[in-house]
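Hi R.,

Here are the chain sequences for the assembly we discussed:
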Amino acid sequence: MRELLLCPPDYYGIEYEINPWMSRARGAEAALAKNQWEQLHATLSTLDCKVHLIEPRPGLPDMVFTANAGLTVDHNFIPSNFRHKERAGEQPFFAEWMKQRGYQVNWLPENLYFEGEGDALFGGDVLFCGYKFRSDIQSHRAVADMLGCLVISVELVDPRFYHLDTCFCPLPDGGAFWSPLAFDEYGQRAIREHVTDLIDVAPEEAMHFSCNAVVIDRDIVLPEGAPQLVTKLQDRGYHCHELPMSEFIKAGGACKCLTMFMPQREAVDGRDGPRDHL
Amino acid sequence: MDSETIELRGHIIDSLILPKVLDQILTHGANFKITEINIGKKRADQSFARIEVSAETGEALDELILRLRQQGAEVMERANAQVAVAPADGVFPRDFYVTTNQQTFVRFDGKEIEVRPAIINSAIALDRKNSTARAVKFFDVNQGDEIVVGHQGVRVVPVQRAATHTDLFQFINTTVDADEPKSAIIRGIGDELRRARAAEGKIAIVVGPAIVRTGADRHLLRLIEAGYVDRLFAGHLFAAYDVERALFGTSLGMNPDLAFARGGHENYLRAINTIREAGGIAEAVQQKILTGGILHAGVHHEVDIVLTGGIRDEGPMPGVTTDMIEAQKTMRTKLADVTHVILLATVRHSLAVASMLATDVKTVCVDIDPPAVERAIEHQPLQSIGLVTDVEPFLRELADCLGESGARG
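And here is the predicted structure of the full complex:
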């Protein structure tokens, strides 16, 4: 059974602006946000998984986006080094929480920015990592050293899709859905070479954070507003749960940003496998 | 040309980071050389590449490196050059760095300075106050001068093939043997000289006494008159033969047209004496004593004539530098702005001139002796053409070809 980590939105709000979605002037409606988060929590709870909650902290409004806390593989937790000081305060709480639950905490060098599952997603045995806006490519190398797996580093080029999980969502059958324009041409090529069945998300649907989805076996929890994508996923035998996410999209996050896998992957295989290509 | 060495590590092949970095270097108009690469064998193995990146200016390089850092490139720290002081006038410190004629940079205080001029077989003297570095010969060095020792912090940029247009010198870039056709190449050389003239290049001709003895001097005369010679380098013997021929119709007693002696070696000594009596070559021209020949034409057409002596010289004639150190200095100065050099039928003089050329000087060497040609152009890779042939037909054909099209007024 998959285990997930969520953080209630008690202190959630748009208190600063660190991506193009955030606007303090517009703000997020607290009651509606709470309602939307509870729907996500309820939906995930009905699926084949166990949901853990971390206690939210005042002054850390984005702690609700647990995906950015770090990357968990097997019994190892790699805490994030946030690029923005506004979020740096989240790190010790997550690290302590994971440690208390028996995870081995492996710290990255302080000078390497890395924003956890937000920029690191497994597709098969390959760890896809995004870089530029939040994580540094140098951190990918350190993560690869820690995990001993193939890391495909892809450059993100659209500031609206500043984390990998805002524009790329791997599926358990080896495929993925993605917004190609969020990547440079080399990133697009690298993804195409390592993912067999790619579903392109239309630009207007990608703007609804459709790629920011939680995939649990054949169930996909994603923000509403992507009928074309949902049809394509249903055609492939997936069951889609569409949720309203408007108040979190205002901060540049949705279903996946609000969820961290514990762990994302049990163990990494393929350390000794041959190279795919040169 | 500025350069830095960067290193890339990680899954740079599967992530296409290596091709991306190389593409970015080229699209920024810069260049690269992969000096080391190690590709992981297994899927999870990381790869490594060390790349030397060079750009036209320091600013362009800095901007490019900034972009490459975003792709994970790490810039290698480079060490400063090591220096030691010259222990005495005319003596280099032990382990002094010996230069090539290729573009060379030395790094000190974290910055690279180009060594100017680029002279082969020299040491490098560093002037910290003015942030300059120059190639120095023994006679240039004074006690206490800072001289580069060892290889650390010294970077040599090999001559690169031109990427933009077909260059005759790079295309041929070899010696054309005696039994191979030469007309097309000579026409190509003619075109090159014409372009050099149009671009205000400087053409130097280095000549040996065979020019006069074979009767090729009449064709060289046409080149001078047509304005294709800016500098003329020759030894005392050439000068003496040229004057003898102008005054008596012979060279070392031989008449190239009649091929028999009239007066033997006598004429040679009388010619030298005439110039000594007149006070110099230019003076002999002014006094209308010397009214023909190459030197006469040179004086008339304001060719810079550099005459140097040798151990067997008679006389010498006034205007011939016999102090070898002075001769070296003068020749180096007169070659500093030369763009094209034609070495004609003279082994030692050609070798001396060739040893003073920067690598980007286009060089043609013509001699009947194949090893002489090889030796003269060995330091000018990608910039030289050697022709194994008698010099007279070469000059005749070149002068014909340049004469057809006219030259400067």
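Chain A has one domain: 2-261. The domain at 2-261 of chain A is CATH 3.75.10.10 (L-arginine/glycine Amidinotransferase; Chain A).

Let me know if anything looks off.

Best,
T.
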